[in-house]
Amino acid sequence: MTTTVxxxxxxxxxxxxxxxxxxxxxxxxxxxxxxxxPVVNADGALxxxxxxxxxxxxxxxxxxxxxxxxxDSVIYLENPARYDRELHKALGTTxxxxxxxxxxxxxxxxxxxxxxxxxxxxxxxxxDVHRVLVLDSADxxxxxxxxxxxxxxxxxxxx
Length: 159
Fold this sequence. Notes:
Elements: H1 5-8, E1 10-11, H2 22-32, E2 36-40, E3 46-51, H3 52-60, E4 67-70, E5 73-76, H4 80-91, H5 95-98, E6 100-101, E7 110-112, H6 117-127, E8 131-135, E9 141-146, H7 147-158
Parallel strand pairs: 7-8
Antiparallel strand pairs: 1-9, 2-3, 3-6, 4-5, 8-9
Helix pairs in contact: 3-4
């Protein structure tokens, strides 16, 4: 019998909403010793993820893009839009301002609950992520599977 994602995932994960304050997110991550949270809208639809990486800008700050002046013109050596995004994250106070958004299908790493566990492990490896959001057949969030979940499952099989 093939082990499925549903057999190993964490069900009913803690979620936050776009208007959740960042200090609440920090508290949840620290208390639960987890590295990220799904973000859902009022209808329960998955709209993004907020992770430790998204929050690091709050502490580390941002470095302005390199530029030089030429005849009273500023010429950026890298895209200033990246700096704007990073600055917005560093100054944000709500989840919506800091989270990684799902702008189009495939932006977030997701899997269906009925898929084989091996597929989730391959997805984590290929996309270099620590967690995959688990959806039901109606694309509603039903769980999260992490690398740690898979390792604990492997340990349980060894008995």
